[in-house]
Design goal:
The chain is of the alpha+beta class. The chain is 57% helix and 16% strand.
């Protein structure tokens, strides 16, 4: 009990000095809690949506999901006759056919895209009774003809749409122009999808290219019939139907929809209950949500790691300042264990307080993130706010455990204080042996990390090298943290010689203060080092990727223009392709498709992937280096090329025959005409064949749409052709026409956006590191109270005192920045060598960014010193001198 009382007294006696450590714990816990609440709320939102939109039992074609982008521009469908078959199943109250497709773009009269800017899909379909589960018509009525459309209320509000406005829906079968006659509101939260509804016949013609087809059949169960039982009955009925169709189809006389008997015979069915449909839909978004969740938790872990240094410094300095008190406790009978426990109890109190506040702040952070996402187009409602009991428990546990572990070394050091040494005010014992061991361990870890980085840089395979790189990063980081106090002396002296000597005696005093306790300076600098090392590493990697890709583009791409559909990876609409081919001033236009196929070598080695089919001019538009053979010959009849890695693995050579099984088509025997080098960043490992070859073996209804177009302008007409291309594709705002300059800029923008997001998340760790500098300086000022009083008494002005503390803070911040940037550039250079194995061969150090971060670190030091310097300047000289 006495230990608890002592700890409580000390904790509240030093509550001001504990505050910044508590803030660091709070920020880290808040980030963890906020991440978990945010992602759990996203999960709840999608779960409610999927549960509300799923019928009791859903029947769909087994070739794919209705709500996903199709390679052909049309989702797989079922014959309309299936609706009657399913409706007659025992336990089914009703069945209705539904049409749904994401292969659309919806624009208003001004040609503005009505789709989400956050990647959420645009969905078109027919209005059914099943939609009443999740939506209700709040204005107007359901569409009743080919010129009428209904839109969801969220999209209408976002884009200012109203009844009577005209929308144009771009589909593979042609445009559907219709006026809004109804607006339907979701009963649950719509995360951001834009939804339009047509009457059934219009949806079938526009989205599927034929009437008499549906993408799915929604089945409603009779009262008392479970979804599982109904699914079993439907599956049995479909199995019997399939058997009858196969028997009746021997002579090609089976009942058929508009696509014919063959289409029905080849149809396989996927039957799911409401829960299974919801689970399948949820699995599609889980990957996206996990990237967000674990990515943000990773940055929270970095913040926790930085916070560890802050807590260690705080308790180390508090222990040093309470040396006399600890000695008195030992002298009156307190054991080492009691002193140790007293410090750990203080740390536990700090962890509990910081974690409690952090959990509350985390919920607020999650709400803020939801508001931010809503502002950019992804709707999340606070009505769905989800806080599982495990979330605050996890935050509390992490905060307390990390705080207690971080305080263990200071607590152990406090327990080792000798009563007599303490009473003589000798301070905590210096352990020269421990310092020597620390130095040796630090050098060993740093050397091991450097060796691992060397092995990674010289690795032959990127996957293997990546694992070694991870080991090297961890070892070198720990090594620099451990060896930090040894580095502090030399680095601070160099920085001081360059920066502080100009300030005369004040600068020299600042230098001595930074060198007074190298362990403290090393720990404070290490906190800043971690965040800046990651910033430098990612900057080098990002800059090298952009520079390498642009260099590869200059070397390999011969086309003047690249035309793509820039909305979620959708293929190009046939109307767009036709419009581009009709542009004057173009020497040629190269169409290209990607079709799934399995390629098998004569020895049985096989590889499944995308076979790139293009016209012969592709060899001019993309200059690929060949290991053997002629790439132009690969675009001949029944010919193809493979990459060098596959050729080596399969032991094939030019002239061999490969077996190619086309997905949805027939199996072909293609002659190997060329082997291309995989030492490139563009189309690495690609297998090429001619467009007409794919068209010969894949049925027209299964043939993928073009993924991109490459175009070459006639000599002297590039600018005119560029403008003409822009005009030709203007009807579809998702289509992008880029020349090589545009393409390079788009690549740079994509990498830049990703890096900015990462830098924003790393800002949390840097904020915690700044708090560490503030706390170190604040406690250092308290520790040197008498010294400051004496310096003031002999003539040091308040202005000089504040300058001394600011300069000390700047040199500590620059020490951490120098170590971090140097370490990060080493990591980044090693990572670039691994990227070189993937064809990105140029190492580019972004010196403006590196120099900017280094200079920014000086301002961080100045900012961190404002409050401690102000407090030091306000000290009463006589009271400071009288301090023990």
């Amino acid at each position: 009990m006495s230990v608890m009382k002592t700890s409580m007294r000390n904790f509240f006696a030093h509550k001001g000095r504990m505050a910044l450590s508590a803030v660091a714990v709070m920020l880290s816990v808040a980030f963890v809690t906020g991440t978990l609440v945010f992602t759990d709320t996203m999960g709840t939102t999608f779960d409610k949506l999927f549960a509300a939109t799923s019928s009791d039992v859903t029947v769909s074609a087994d070739g794919g999901e209705p709500d996903e982008v199709s390679r052909t521009g049309r989702p797989d469908s079922l014959p309309a006759s299936l609706v009657k078959e399913v409706a007659a199943v025992e336990g089914a109250r009703s069945a209705e056919g539904a049409v749904s497709s994401m292969d659309v773009t919806v624009v208003d009269r001004d040609n503005k895209n009505m789709g989400s800017s956050t990647g959420a899909p645009t969905i078109a379909g027919n209005w059914t009774k099943n939609d009443l589960r999740s939506m209700e018509i709040t204005s107007g009525h359901a569409p009743r003809g080919p010129t009428q459309v209904m839109v969801d209320a969220d999209t209408a509000d976002k884009h200012g749409l109203k009844l009577g406005d005209e929308l144009r829906t771009i589909t593979v079968s042609g445009d559907i122009t219709a006026r809004i006659v109804g607006i339907a509101s979701f009963k649950v939260t719509n995360p951001g999808a834009a939804v339009v509804f047509f009457d059934t016949a219009t949806a079938q013609r526009g989205l599927l290219g034929a009437t008499g087809r549906f993408t799915q059949v929604n089945v409603t169960a009779e009262a008392g019939v479970s979804d599982t039982r109904l699914k079993r009955n439907v599956s049995s009925a479909l199995a019997a139907l399939t058997a009858r169709t196969e028997q009746g189809g021997q002579g090609g006389q089976s009942a058929k929809g508009e696509q014919g008997a063959k289409g029905e015979q080849q149809t396989a069915y996927k039957v799911r209950t409401q829960q299974e449909t919801a689970d399948a839909n949820r699995s599609d978004v889980d990957e996206f949500m996990n990237v967000i969740k674990y990515g943000m938790l990773g940055f929270a872990g970095i913040a926790f790691l930085v916070g560890v240094f802050l807590i260690i410094n705080t308790f180390s300095m508090l222990v040093a300042q309470r040396t006399r008190e600890i000695g008195l406790m030992r002298a009156v009978g307190s054991s080492r264990g009691q002193v140790n426990r007293s410090v750990l109890v203080e740390a536990t109190l700090l962890g509990v307080l910081g974690s409690l506040i952090g959990v509350g702040a985390g919920v607020g952070l999650a709400v803020g993130l939801m508001k931010l996402m809503s502002a950019v187009g992804m709707e999340l409602s606070t009505r769905d706010l989800t806080v599982h009991w495990t979330t605050p428990a996890t935050g509390m546990l992490l905060g307390i455990v990390v705080t207690v572990l971080a305080s263990y070394l200071p607590a152990r050091r406090a327990g080792k204080v000798s009563p007599m040494a303490a009473l003589r005010d000798a301070g905590t014992p210096a352990d020269g042996k421990a310092g020597l061991v620390r130095g040796l361990v630090g050098l060993a870890l740093t050397g091991a990390g450097a060796f691992a980085l060397y092995l990674a840089a010289t690795a032959d395979q990127a996957k293997q090298g990546s694992m070694i790189l991870g080991v090297g990063i961890v070892l070198s980081l720990i090594g620099f943290v451990v060896i930090g106090p040894l580095l502090a002396g030399g680095v601070v002296r160099v920085l001081s010689a360059v920066l502080l000597r100009a300030f005369g005696p004040v600068g020299r005093m600042a230098e001595r203060n930074a060198l007074r306790n190298p362990r403290r300076t090393g720990a404070t600098g290490a906190a800043l080092m971690i965040g800046l090392a990651l910033v430098a590493c990612l900057s080098v990697v990002g800059s090298s990727m952009v520079t390498s890709a642009t260099a590869e583009l200059d070397k390999s791409v011969g086309a003047d223009f690249i035309i793509t559909a820039g909305n979620g990876g959708k293929p190009l609409n046939p109307a767009t392709v036709k419009a581009v081919e009709g542009v004057e001033g173009l020497g040629h236009v190269t169409r290209m498709k990607e079709t799934p196929a399995k390629v098998t070598a004569p020895d049985g080695t096989s590889e499944s992937g995308q076979l790139l089919a293009a016209e012969a001019t592709y060899a001019e538009d993309l200059r690929r280096e060949t290991v053997s053979g002629d790439l132009a010959a690969a675009y001949g009849a029944d010919a193809m090329s493979v990459g060098s890695e596959f050729a080596e693995k399969a032991g094939v050579k030019v002239g061999d025959t490969l077996t190619v099984a086309f997905d949805g088509g027939r199996t072909a025997k293609l002659r190997l005409a060329a082997i291309t080098s995989d030492d490139t960043g563009l189309d690495q490992g690609a297998m090429y064949t001619n467009l007409t070859t794919v068209e010969r073996y894949v049925p027209a209804e299964r043939l993928p749409l073009d993924t991109a177009l490459l175009a070459k302008a006639d000599e002297g007409s590039k600018d005119r052709a560029y403008a003409a291309l822009k005009t030709a594709v203007a009807k579809d705002p998702t289509v992008k026409v880029m020349d090589q300059t545009d393409y390079k800029q788009a690549l740079q923008d994509q990498v830049g956006q990703l890096l900015n997001m990462v830098y924003g998340l790393l800002a949390l760790a840097i904020v915690v590191a700044i708090l560490g500098v503030v706390n170190t300086l604040a406690l250092s000022v308290v520790e040197r109270t008498r010294e400051i009083g004496l310096m003031r008494a002999i003539g040091l002005s308040r202005r000089q005192l504040r300058r001394m503390i600011r300069l000390e803070s700047v040199v500590i911040a620059l020490f951490g920045a120098l170590l971090g940037l140097g370490l990060g550039m080493g990591w980044g250079a090693t990572a670039q060598r691994l990227l070189a194995l993937e064809g990105l061969e140029v190492l580019d150090i972004p010196w403006p960014t590196i120099i900017g971060v280094f200079i920014g670190s000086a301002f961080v030091g100045l900012f961190a010193a404002l409050v401690p310097a102000f407090r030091a300047g306000r000290m009463n000289v006589l009271n400071a001198i009288a301090t023990d």
